[in-house]
Amino acid sequence: MLKRITLPVAEIVNENETIRTFYFEKKLGALPGQFIMLSDLVTGEKPFSISECESGYFGVTIKKLGTFTQALFEKKPGDLLSYRGAYGSSFSISGRNVLLVGGGYATPPLYYLSKELLKAGAELTVVNGARSKKELVFCERFSNLSLSYQRITDAGCLGRAGSSVDIAQVLLEENHYDMVYVSGPELMMRAMRNLLQNYPELNYEFLFERYMKCAIGICGNCTIDPLGIRLCVEGPVLARDKIVQLTEFGEYHRNAAGIKEYF
Amino acid sequence: MKNDRSRISVEFLGKRAATPLVLPAGIMGMTWSGMKYTWENGCGIITSKSLTMEPRKGHAGPVIAEFEGGMLNCMGLCNPGIEEGLAEVNEFRKFYEVPVIVSIFATTIDDFLTLTQKVNESRGDFVELNLSCPNVSDEYGLPLAASKIKVAEIVSAVKMVSKIPVIAKLSPNVSGLTEICTAAEAAGADALCLINTLGPGMLIDIDLQRSVLSNRTGGMSGPCVKPVALRAVFEAYSRVKIPIIGTGGVSNGRDAVEMLMAGASLVGVGSALYEGGIGIFEQINQDILTYMDQYGYGTITDIPRLEKM
Ligand SMILES: Cc1cc2nc3c(=O)[nH]c(=O)nc-3n(C[C@H](O)[C@H](O)[C@H](O)COP(=O)(O)OP(=O)(O)OC[C@H]3O[C@@H](n4cnc5c(N)ncnc54)[C@H](O)[C@@H]3O)c2cc1C
Ligand SMILES: Cc1cc2nc3c(=O)[nH]c(=O)nc-3n(C[C@H](O)[C@H](O)[C@H](O)COP(=O)(O)O)c2cc1C
Ligand code: FES
Description:
The complex is a heterodimer of chains A (about 260) and B (about 300). Chain A starts with a strand and ends with a strand. Chain A folds into two domains: about 5-85, Beta Barrel (Elongation Factor Tu (Ef-tu), domain 3); about 95-260, Rossmann fold (3-Layer(aba) Sandwich). Chain A has six helices and 17 strands. Chain A has about 260 residues and is α+β, with helices and mostly antiparallel strands. In chain A, about 50% of the residues are buried. Chain A has helices spanning about 65-70, 110-120, 140-145, 165-175, 185-195, 240-245; strands spanning about 5-10, 10-15, 20-25, 35-40, 45-55, 60-65, 80-85, 95-105, 125-130, 150-155, 180-185, 205, 225, 230, 235-240, 250-255, 260. Helix content of chain A is about 20%, strand content about 30%. Chain B is α/β, with parallel strands linked by helices and about 300 residues long. Chain B has a single domain, classed as TIM Barrel (Alpha-Beta Barrel), CATH 3.20.20.70. In chain B, helix 5 (about 150-160) packs parallel to helix 6 and helix 6 (about 175-185) crosses helix 7 (about 225-240). The longest helix of chain B has 16 residues, at about 280-295. Chain B starts with 9 loop residues before the first strand and ends in a 14-residue tail after the last helix. Classes of the chains: A alpha+beta (about 260), B alpha/beta (about 300). At the A-B interface, strand 7, strand 13 and strand 14 of A face helix 1, strand 5, helix 2, strand 13 and helix 9 of B. The structure holds flavin-adenine dinucleotide, flavin mononucleotide and FE2/S2 (inorganic) cluster. The site of flavin-adenine dinucleotide (FAD) has 21 residues of chain A, from strand 5, strand 6 and helix 1.
C-alpha cells in the first residue's frame, strides 16, 4: 500500500507571478512523468507532475488557477502539506538524439526528464514555448544543462513570434531525431501529433492531463476514449501506439462530474 | 479444458455473463470506454456509476484514503447525471453484447421512478437501486437501506414501472439485515447486491491534525470487509431465493470461490483493481478455473454452496 506522507514545505521558488515550485526534503523515487496527489487536507487534493527529483528532495511546479492552487500559494516554507504517490506511467528513457517540446506550466516535468536523459548519454534539444516571456518557466535551469535550448512566445518578445510547434516543425525538417517528448496544453499537443504524422518512423511520448480523483485506478474519472485506459495508471505518459488511437484527444475531456467539456 | 471460459459463464436473470465477475457500481463505470476496458479484461457484467437526477461533482479531495487492509472513500456520488450517464451506457452497449447494470440513486420514490423510466428507455439490462451509499448522509440522512419499510416501498414502486429486472443494493451497516433482504424479495426485487461499503470509517493525519478524508468519514472497502460481506451474503442466501451479487473485499480467486460458497451467484470485484491492477479480473477467472480443476467441477455452478443456516 502506498502511504500518505505529511511534511513541511522545504522551499518555495517564485518562477513568475503565477507559477511557483514547491520543494520537499524527502526521497520520492519517482520517475520522470509521474505525478503526486498533493493536499492541505482542507481545500482539496490535486495532481501535480514532478519537475525535479534528486535523492534528498523533489519539487512540483504549480500554476495558480482555482481554489486549491490559490490556497497552496498562501503556504510558506515550514507549513505542512500532505502527498501520496508517485503515481502513473513514466517517460521511457530512450533515444540518442532527442527532441523535447514543452508549453507553459507543463514544461517543468521535461526538466526532470532532460536530466535523466543526459545521464543516459542522449543529445537533447529542448523547445520551451509560452504565451509571453513572463510565462516561460525554467529557462535558467535548462540553460545550465548541456543541451540545445530554444525559447519562443506567442507574442514574439524574444525576437520571433510563434509556438513551440512552429519551432519543432523546423527542427524536425533539419535534424534527425529518434525520439520526441511533449508536455503542454492539449491543443498544442494535438498540433504536435498532427505534425508528427509526417514522421511515421519516429517514436514519441506525450504527457496528458485528465480530471483525477482517486489516482489509483478505481474511480474511472480519468479514462480516455476510446481505449478506456486510466490516465492515472496507464498514463499520464502515453506513447505513439496509444496516442494515434485516441478520439477524445484535443476534442473533449470530462470534468469532476464526468461530463464532457469540449476544448 | 482448463482455459475453457464457457465453464465459468453464468446465466443471470435471463442474460448470459461470460464470466461470474461483476464490476461494481462506482468502479470504472463512469465512461463507456472505462466499461469497455474492464470488460476486455475479464469482467462479465458491468455496473454503471450510481446515476442521479442531476449531475454531481462529488466531494473535494482527498476522496480516497488507503490503510492496511483496504481503503475509505467519500467520492460523494459524483456522476454526470442520468441523461449523460445513460448516454455512456448506450454508447458501450451499442457495440458490445455485455450485460450492463444501471445503478441509480435517489432519496425519494418519485425520483427513483423518474430514473427508472429513463433507464427503461436505455440499452441497460438491469437496474440497481443504490439504497446504501454511506457518503451523503450529511446531505440526506441515513441510507434508505436502514429501513425495511422504505426498502420495500421503493422496490415495489420501482417494480411497477421497470421493464427490466430490479436489483436492490443493500448496506451492511444496519441491524436486521436478513429482514431487510426478505422485505426486498417480498417487494419483488429480482436480485440483491451485497454489500455496499462498510462503516463508515475515519482516518486522522496526526501531523496536520485533521481527518484525512475531506468529508471526514468514508465507506470502507477492500480485503478488510470480506468477512462481513461473506456473512451478509450467507445470511441473505439462507433466507431468500433470488440470486445475490456478492461484493466486498474479493481480491483473488479463492476469495471469489468463498463468495460463491456463501451463496452468491455472481461476484463483485472493485477495490482489488488497485492492488491487483487491470489484470486482476482475468487472474481471478483463471484461479476459479484452477480451483474447479482441483476438485473436478465441470462448470461453475457445480461449486457447492454451504448448507443454509
Ligand atoms: C497528471 C497531471 C499532472 C499535472 N501536473 C501539473 C503541474 O505540474 N503543475 C500544475 O500547475 N498543474 C498540473 N496539473 C493540473 C492541476 O492538477 C490543476 O491545475 C489543479 O488541479 C487546479 O486546481 P484548482 O483548484 O486550483 O483549480 P480549479 O479551478 O479547480 O481547476 C482549474 C483547472 O484545473 C483542472 N483540474 C482541477 N482539478 C483537477 C483534478 N483533480 N485533476 C486534473 N485536473 C484538474 C480543471 O479541469 C481546470 O481546467 C496536472 C494535472 C494532471 C492530471
Ligand atoms: C471509489 C468507490 C466508489 C463507489 N461508488 C459506489 C456507487 O456509486 N454506488 C454504489 O452502489 N456503490 C459504490 N461503491 C461500493 C462498491 O460498489 C462496492 O460495493 C464496495 O466497494 C465493496 O466491494 P470491493 O471491496 O470489491 O470494493 C463504491 C466503492 C468505491 C471504492
Ligand atoms: S483518477 Fe480514479 S481512475 Fe484515475
